[in-house]
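[step 3/7] fold_predict: job queued, chain A
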Amino acid sequence: MMIAGVLSLAAFAADPDATRILFRYALEKPALTSAGIFDGDRLVRALWAMEERPAGVYDDRLPGPERQPLGQWTWTDANDDGKVDEGEVVWFKKPGEGRHAIFGMNVDSEGAILCCDHHTQSIWQLPMSGLSAEGNPVYDWRLARIVVPRDASAVQLFPLMAMRADDGTIYAFGRSAWPRPGGETAGYAWMGGWALGRFDRSGARLWRALLPQVCVGMDAIPGGRGVMLGYFEKAHIYHYTPDGLLIGRMEPGDAAGKVTGWMDNTSATAVSRDPRDGFLDVFGEDSWLNRVVWYRVDDRDVRTIVGTIELAR
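[step 4/7] structure written:
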């Protein structure tokens, strides 16, 4: 069962007892990236970035000599005043020593941050060290480690986005040595990938699959029931089982005018389960028409059969 609708603004649907992550990107100077963990009715803050200093500016539009040197640091709002105080910043690499490039981050149920580093082509995990006296999460770059190393196989999965599912396994999508599907326009999605992989809790590979099209958004289905990804050009949503089997595709119906398109960030697809009826609420970005397409999916009867299947003649 699937029902397609349209939202004029992004919606946030979640079980009130669940933990969710919200990001805020400050486009004006100073350029800072903050992450807030939404737990029940409490929003707590943490921040990490690569600016020259916590109150500084990094602008890649400036000529190289005029840019601030990169560093890596974390900030915890210890006194809960919303300001970056000098004593609240922990430096991992001083200005000029930083080297880290990612498209985005995801936070698991234990507060650990997962990200895909472009330089090492690996998946990193930064655990939450604890909570401050005010209840804000504490992070320290020195504790970051590689959880999924660079893919040395012939597939050469270059992860662009990774996230932990409810069962602790990791899903990641990205580029690959496999031929890229689609025509010339497929190359427009610089943040997109065409390979999907799943890894166990420790980072060991379980499987990889070639996606039908270049996708830019991904979210795990609650309950460990697979993953959904968004095709960037048409904003179609692909539904995969935990075993890597493609079992469905969603596209806009009458409520959306049967048209949408242009997903353009790694978080362009969001999935949550409505506790009232058990249906999935699936949201897909539509940056072309400046809206969010909303699908309702009944996946309660989807079953995965494991083992040997004998078919009677």
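[step 5/7] annotate
DSSP finds no helices and 22 strands in the chain.
The radius of gyration is 20 Å.
exit 0
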